Each structure stands twice: as structure tokens, then as C-alpha cells.
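Hi R.,

Here's the chain you asked about this morning:
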Amino acid sequence: METINPSENQIRADNQQGRLNPWWVVGFVDGEGCFSISIFRNVTTKSGVQVFPEFVVTQGTKSLSVLKNLQIFFGCGNIYVNRRKDNHRENLYRYCVRNLKDIQEKIIPFFDRYTLQTAKYQDYLVFCEIVKLIDQKSHLSLEGIEKIRALASTMNRHKIR
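And here is the predicted structure, written out as C-alpha cells:
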């Protein structure tokens, strides 16, 4: 995936950059965002497994400016182009925050203060619990990985991990 830098493109003056209403952000993330935990094999890690928390908001080309504004609003993350087309035949873009420190210091405090309003809130709570376990280094033991895997399997329509 290709990374998009918000300063590469001219941002229109009428954009709400830096001035997004926090409750608008909550509503938008409730509809278009995702809190996820990926667990995959990585032979370079001691346990052979890597645990990867991620906050993502996805949009098509026509709404790329919204993702740029979210990136400015949160002051972290990257935007990636996914050349897979959506149902409007345009590229998909993903605003992603993967850095654990940014998740802990920017994303979680925001959503603790401005609570999600849909069932996504339950995924967020599990996400926070897993981030805490990662911070406590639980992901470095097989027991911890299994606990994280069990929690993650309750998120996002119960995907198998």
C-alpha cells in the first residue's frame, strides 16, 4: 500500500482541518471506523507471533479529505491507498494508527472522553483491554497471546484469529 502525506495535496480552505467537532468524529468513526487486533506469525519475535493493535477509518477517493482531516485532528497515523476498488469504482483509502504510543496517548484518551454511541463501543472496550495487556508485555508469553486471541475473537463480528 502506498502512503499519502496530507501536505502533498492542497487542502481546501473550507475544510474543517483541526476544527473537527469531537462528536462529529465519534459519529463518523461509529459508522466508518474499526478497532482491530491482528495476530500473525512472525519468526523474528521470541514467541513467533506478533500482536498488532490498529485504529482504522476507510473511505473512497471522493472522501479522502475527511481522512486527511482526521489525521490532522488526531496528530498521528498514516493514510494508505488500497488500489482495490469500492462499489463506486474508486480506490479505497485507510487512515491507520498503529503506533502503540499514539494509540495510548491520543486515540484511547479521545474515545474515553467522547464515547462511541453504537455497538462499536464494545469493540473499543476490548481493544483497550488488549492494548493494556500489550503494554504489560502479556503478548510476549503464549498464555498472554491466548488471552489476547480469545478477547480479539469477540471483536468485529467475532472473526476467528
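One quick note: The beta strands are 2-4, 33-41, 49-60, 78-85, 91-97.

Cheers,
M.
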